[in-house]
Amino acid sequence: MTLSAPPVLRPPTPARVSVHPRLVRLDPQTRARLHAAAEAFEVPAELIAGVLIDEHARLDRWDAMQDVAVRFGLRLPGPVAAGWWRLLGGCCGRPVDSFSLGRAQMKPETLRHLGRLGYVDVPATPDALWRMLLDDRLAERLVAACLRATVDHWAAGGVAILHRPDVLGTLYSLGLTGANGVHAHPVANARGEGIARWASWLSTQGVLTGQAPQR
């Protein structure tokens, strides 16, 4: 699904601002996490939020069921959990470790790669890693780490893309480079352009500061 132009803000309540009832609510805790992640990894807070909005917009029932099933398995004792993971992987036709999980919709191997590069501290065991991906409070930081890793990877190849939210939005779901590797003229896809539109809109509406205009 390609995101259309961002909708008009609903009137804010004292506790939170609704950008869209189905997509995202930026309450004070979420805004604080966005700004902390942006500062830690030196990427725009509005771009982190744009990626999370896009991921949320694309969630379907299957994605939600995967998260619920993994959360359930993580509560089971060891021997029972082992059987659950085999059953779940068999039903899905692929191992649990290949699922995209949590608000960041990040795969475990992506998180491991970020750990190997030194951007985040990653647990050693699969179950601890899955818990990390499913921790809603860490989503902003995981997205920011991935965006920073992408910026740095392209910069090492002589190409600056921090000023290209559309390209960064594209690469978030494709990997550090996509199929074509680092090159001088990266082109965004429709998904990346949608993320960039969200980032631009968020930066002008006061959503990230809690000062969104009443409509």
UniProtKB/TrEMBL annotation:
- Protein name, entry field: Uncharacterized protein
